[in-house]
Amino acid sequence: MSAIRMLVLGAVRQHGRAHGYQVRNDLEYWGAHEWSNAKPGSIYHALKQLARQGLLVAHDTAPSTAGGPPRTEYGITEEGEREFFRLLRAALTGYDQKPDLLSAALGFLVDLERAEAVELLRERLRSIEEWRRSVTEYYTPEAGPESIGHIGEIMNLWVHSADTGAEWTRGLIARVEAGAYTFAGEGEPFVGVLADGRSNPYAGGAPPAARPE
Fold it and tell me: Which of 36, 53, 70, 133 has its Cα between 20 and 30 A from that of 162?
């Protein structure tokens, strides 16, 4: 699974229609270029690839508001919606996913209904706890990593990461159940994307005039 795939689908979905620089701007605003492969080249490539796969649709080009060349605007298709939510649910429940996938999923957590978000997070917690039980059948954290030589430090890292992940997941579940954030169907959502033309304080630089989109 690719984080850039979910990020691009989700960013386009939030706008309704978006051109490549808008998507790049949004993802840089989230800091995704720091914790994922959401670099400019990857974003533009993903937009075109997702359009070829029928998950996005490329609309007729329109003149750029910045005075540059025409820009292609993308919209998400019904198949793209299904793929986006499949990726989102898998990233929230899969403990063995890479950190960038979980980070991307958290950015779109409120696109789900609250009850489903809680259940997916509970499933994630069950996966973590089940994994920890399986590991501690042959590795006992209380005995310390030294009990199986320096390789024990690997096991110690994994178990520590599992414990930390479980604690964080319980905290998030508690916050969501207590009413934190506005989820799908609950009212006006938090706006996590930049309006077209709004300055991005985290931007990696303006796009070249001839950048393809």
Answer: 36
Mean pLDDT value across the chain: 84
- Cβ pair 34, 202 in contact under 8 A: no
The whole-number pLDDT of residue 5 equals 94
pLDDT computed for residue 197 by the predictor: 60
Q: Which residues of 110-129 are buried (b: 16+ CB within 10 A; e: fewer)?
A: bbbebeebbbbbebbbebbe
Cβ atoms < 10 Å from Cβ of 92: 23
- pTM above the 0.70 mark? yes
Q: Specify whether the CB–CB gap between 57 and 73 falls below 8 A.
A: no
Helices (H) and strands (E) in the chain, counts: 8, 3
How far apart CA 118 and CA 127 sit, in angstroms, is 14
User: 3-state SS string over 176-199?
Assistant: HHCCCCCCCCCCCCCCCCCCCCCC
Sign of CA dihedral 112, 177, 105, 20: positive
Alpha helices for 37-98 (secondary structure H): 40-52, 78-93
Q: State whether residue 38 is helix, strand or coil.
A: coil
Which residues is 19 bridged to in the sheet?
A: 73
